[in-house]
Write a structure and sequence with these properties.
Blueprint: H1 17-91, H2 97-107, H3 111-135, H4 147-172, H5 181-189, H6 194-198, E1 201-204, H7 207-212, E2 230-233, E3 241-243, H8 244-251, H9 264-268
Helix pairs in contact: 1-2, 1-3, 1-4, 3-4
GO cellular component, one term: nucleus
InterPro entries: RING_finger_E3_ligase (IPR051834), Znf_RING (IPR001841), Znf_RING/FYVE/PHD (IPR013083)
Transmembrane segments: 23-47, 112-132, 152-171
Length: 269
């Protein structure tokens, strides 16, 4: 079954795939740099002042440890997401636009992206606690390491990242929303999975094809197969054949053979 079964807040941004990719690049890159800065500052302080920091304010020190760990743990996730974006960028000029849109929609529904969102939510909740702790904080002996200045630096970096993220989001919001987006999303939900489409058998039009397969016309475009055409064979009972580009565009919208209505997902399992 398709993975894009429910709408996602970012779906509408992918109607223009190049802008959707650029938006995700900005957000992941900013977030990646933020996590690196926070982790470096926090771990450097904790490494030098761990014991004394607890004597000064153990709760704020616990917060600093937990917050820095959360930001450190999401670094590999952001690296993986950025690498996925690099791959999608390399495919954007090769694939049909609808393929790129669905790849982006699948990305924001993937387990790695959901984990990234969960860590982000955890960061926001921890930020609130940290702010409350700073406001109601106390002073400690001047001979002890004070975690307040480091905690304030960490919070400021994260808050600046949030502000930049909001600016990027609002700047991108200037593009008008397409009214037909709900219908557009609906037909993408009915389409076959990209992996199933890409795994379909491909052959070239030649004499062997004519001897093996009955139909010599692509039922999608109604043109006859020509020598050298790239043809895809569907895994239905009749092994129906179509032009590669024609059937790819068909299947991304509807997971069924144009002739017999058989689902390629069920046959490929």
């Amino acid at each position: 079954m398709p993975t894009t079964t429910n709408s996602h807040p970012l779906d509408w941004k992918f109607l223009n795939p190049s802008k959707g990719l650029k938006y995700l690049y900005y957000q992941f890159t900013i977030s990646f740099i933020t996590s690196i800065c926070i982790s470096t500052i926090s771990f450097k302080y904790l490494y030098s002042n761990f014991g004394n920091s607890f004597l000064c304010d153990k709760y704020l020190t616990y917060w600093l440890v937990l917050f820095s760990l959360v930001k450190f743990c999401d670094i590999p996730l952001k690296v993986k997401l950025l690498l996925k974006l690099v791959y999608l960028s390399s495919r954007i000029k090769v694939d049909d636009t609808r393929f790129t849109i669905k790849r982006l929609m699948n990305l924001v529904r993937s387990s790695i992206f959901k984990t990234f969102e969960l860590l982000n939510i955890s960061s926001y909740l921890l930020l609130i606690y940290g702010l409350v702790r700073i406001v109601s904080g106390n002073t400690c002996d001047e001979n002890l390491a004070n975690p307040y200045s480091t905690s304030v630096k960490v919070m400021m970096i994260f808050i600046i990242r949030l502000i930049i993220g909001i600016i990027v989001l609002k700047f991108d919001d200037n593009e008008p929303v397409i009214r037909g987006f709900p219908e557009f999303l609906y037909f993408l939900q009915d389409g076959a999975e990209i992996e199933d489409i890409e795994n379909l058998q491909e052959i070239s039009m030649n004499d062997d094809f004519k001897n093996q397969y009955k139909n010599d016309v692509c039922s999608v475009c109604t043109f006859e197969f020509q020598e050298g055409d790239v043809i895809k064979v569907l895994p239905c009972y009749e092994s129906h054949t179509f032009h590669k580009d024609c059937i790819d565009r068909w299947l991304i919208q509807k997971d069924s053979c144009p002739l017999c209505g058989s689902s390629i997902a069920k046959k490929n399992k």
